[in-house]
Amino acid sequence: MHPTEPSKAPFSFLTLKIAMTAPRHFLKLSDFSAAELQQVVDRAMALKALKRNLPRPFVGKTLAMIFTKNSTRTRVSFEAGMAKFGGHALFLHGDAMQLGRNEPIADTARVLARMVDAVMIRNDSQADQMELAAHSAVPVINGLSNQHHPCQLLADIQTWVEHRGPVAGKVAAWIGDGNNVCHSWIEAAKLLGFTLRIACPKGFEPDAALLAWAGDAVELMRGAAFAANGADIVVTDTWTSMGQEKEEARRIAAFAPFTVNAELMARAKPDAIFQHCLPAHRGEEVTAEVIDGPQSVVWDEAENRLWGQMALLEFLLA
Ligand code: CP
Ligand code: NVA
Fold it and tell me: Whose CA is nearest to atom 8 of ligand 2?
């Protein structure tokens, strides 16, 4: 069983009825099979190729976007994606909703599903997202939680494939925090058949149950140089995620040997690419030389948030 899966309730006719009518959700990458992920990534590339000749399948459809944390890429890509498809996206700040005054998540889910066609949520708690999805008659999409960032991986995989072809059998090096984005990279490695080497300081490892689930798809290493050796792609993320601001000084000290710089990139394959979900902190997790250099694909990666999520919405709402 996947570590973030709820324990199974006993079977009943009610569960059968819900199962027959339940929409698909995308709360973590492994909610989809490898074939489904491949289908979404392929479709994202096809939509990108169409660019100005896009279909408009979502006329009259609305996506509700709940944010309790900041965002640039996720908000803009979902909003622009819905507009391109002829639909509409609603930005809902968590604090401005009754949810911010303790209206139950389940009631929020029931009400939203009467008015909109899909819900995207960015918040802290994966459990709250699961609660929302459990009571939602429309698809729920994780736009980032403390545990996962699956939409990011749609873009990251697409970008990797666009630049270097199929990912199966390749080696990715994750340098830095074992955080939400790292967790989604772990799921991607397991599902898509590449090896993920993770180099992080002691005490900042990814979730142990998730590592166990991924088995030999993931290798945990202490040294950044070992992880980067001969890698096809080097990836990092901020050392201080949203909500961890009070830990910033401690984190900067602990992560100091984990900066992705030119010397580290030189250990990877000569044609290795560099990815970062952004926002980036030059001089911390990555040097300006690397992120603004020729191996960096971060702007393609950011753009692909748009195409990946349009393909995802099409898949979920079809
Ligand atoms: N990468 C990412 O999710 O960016 P935002 O926080 O700007 O949405
Ligand atoms: N790990 C980062 C990702 C931001 C897109 C955070 O959670 O803040």
Answer: 241
Tokens linked to 14: 């009610």
Is 74 near ligand 1, meaning CB less than 6 Å away? Answer: yes
- Per residue in 226-270, pLDDT tens? 999 999 999 999 999 999 999 999 999 999 999 999 999 999 999
> How many residues are there in the chain?
318
Instruction: Name the residue of 121, 159, 184, 305 to mutate for ligand 1: max ligand atoms within 8 A of Cβ.
Output: 305
Q: 57 near 63, Cβ under 8 Å? A: no
The Cβ of residue 105 has, within 10 Å, a number of other Cβ atoms equal to 22
Instruction: Check: CB of residue 25 under 8 Å from CB of residue 140.
Output: yes
pLDDT given for residue 3 in this prediction:
64
Q: Rounded to the nearest whole angstrom, what is the distance from the C-alpha of residue 148 to the centroid of ligand 2?
A: 9
The residues that are catalytic are: 122, 149, 152, 237, 277, 305
Whether the full predicted model's pTM is greater than 0.90, yes or no, is yes
